[in-house]
Amino acid sequence: MAQRFLQLAEVSEILNISSAQAYALVRSGELPAIKIGGRGQWRVEATELEGYIQRMYAETRTFVKSHPFGGAGEED
């Protein structure tokens, strides 16, 4: 059975970002998450992470369509 909830460390690994960036996404509300337990450990539901990824693909497509040559010469 697939894991339903992911720790922020796992989210950062999947997205190839730092833990601080994953935390910022959660705290801003851009990536929905819940706090669990007395220590308030953040958990991200796998389906929410997938939805976030799909939204980022859609936003990127929109950006590229409206700025077809805007990225020429820019680095990642």
Structure report:
This protein has a single domain (5-66), classed as Multidrug-efflux Transporter Regulator, Chain: A, Domain 2, CATH 1.10.1660. 51% of the residues lie in helices and 14% in strands. It contains 3 helices and 3 strands; from the N terminus they run E-H-H-E-E-H. Strands 1-3-2 form a 3-stranded antiparallel beta sheet. The protein is elongated.
Strand tally is 3
Order of helix and strand elements from N to C terminus: EHHEEH
State the name of the first-level CATH class.
Answer: Mainly Alpha
Uncertain segments: none
Total domain count: 1
Query: What class do helices, strands and sheet pairing give?
Result: alpha+beta
The overall pLDDT average reads: 91
Largest sheet: 3 strands, antiparallel
| Rg over CA atoms | 15 Å
Principal-axis shape equals: elongated
Distance between the termini: 35 Å
In the CATH hierarchy, the third-tier topology is known as Multidrug-efflux Transporter Regulator, Chain: A, Domain 2
Helix content: 40-55%
How is the secondary structure organized here?
Blueprint: E1 5-7, H1 8-15, H2 19-28, E2 34-36, E3 41-45, H3 46-66
Antiparallel strand pairs: 1-3, 2-3
Helix pairs in contact: 1-2
What's a concise summary of this model?
The protein contains three helices and three strands; from the N terminus they run βααββα.
Task: List key phrases describing it.
51% helix; 14% strand; 3 helices; three-stranded antiparallel β-sheet; 76 residues; alpha+beta
